[in-house]
Amino acid sequence: MTLNEFTDKVVLITGGASGMGLASAKRFSELGAKVCIMDKNKTRLNEVNIHLSASEDQIMTLECDISEPSQIEKGMKEINNSWGRLDIVFANAGIGGVMAPIETMDIKDWKKTIDIDLTGTFATVKYAIPLLKKQGGSIVITSSISGNRVYSQAGFSCYSTAKAAQATFMKMAALELGQYGIRVNAVCPGGVATNMSENMSKSPEVQNISMQPHFPRGNQPLMKGSADPSQIADAVEFLTSQKASHITGTELYIDGGESLLQG
Ligand code: NAD
Description:
Belongs to the short-chain dehydrogenases/reductases (SDR) family. By secondary structure, the protein is an alpha/beta fold. The protein has a single domain, classed as Rossmann fold. A seven-stranded parallel sheet has the order 3-2-1-4-5-6-7, sandwiched between helices. Helix 4 links the parallel strand 4 and strand 5. It starts with 9 loop residues before the first strand and ends with a helix. The site of nicotinamide-adenine-dinucleotide has 30 residues, from helix 1, helix 4 and helix 6.
């Protein structure tokens, strides 16, 4: 492996046991970085090494539910104890949440989505700051086109609200952390072929709501089909690299042009 700017850097990826998190873990480990994957899915965590061709001392897997801030704080201590630094955070873990009309949505389902997608992202960034501040670094948050192009996503109020708030939180974090040499950006994917999108497309709630004419669904992307998770990893690699050294507070859409058609 040739040395590059990521060699021996320490990267934290939440939700790194699947989908775009796993694709990014693969990418960073191939570039020689040390990667800590925090994920709540123990089975998938135990299998990540099958997907990564990395040496054992390059990968750390931590079972962590990001809606439990104490678990994130504990994870940061483990990263510090093992590797003594943190350079890059990909705050990516999230759920699609429940799709239901506002009138019938259960408050518990609303809170669960906000706890994971929004508060979990906040807590990930919050507890990473002391480590990132030591030498500067870069944070990428996974928002979504759903946070911006809401009118074609009726029935998706909790997810869209959480994703929109993540994008605003990203800008606030960029504003506060620039003084420490920490850049903060967001990736906003459209459809990506992952477990999450597959499960959602099969869910009865999504099927049901898609059938209702007064709940219109989104358009197809200009570039046909879903993105591959590796295409999100491309964007994360760019945003955390020196090539993006003057980029902070930005939302990068990786949606095959879908948002152009909806806006
Ligand atoms: P995925 O289901 O393949 O991966 C998500 C990972 O997050 C899983 O490994 C899961 O165990 C983990 N996770 C879920 N809740 C967690 C929690 N509370 N604590 C820790 N880990 C948790 O899905 P994905 O599509 O790769 O999703 C990654 C991110 O991308 C999410 O934030 C999602 O909202 C966002 N996103 C997905 C799409 C899409 O079309 N798939 C589009 C836009 C944005």
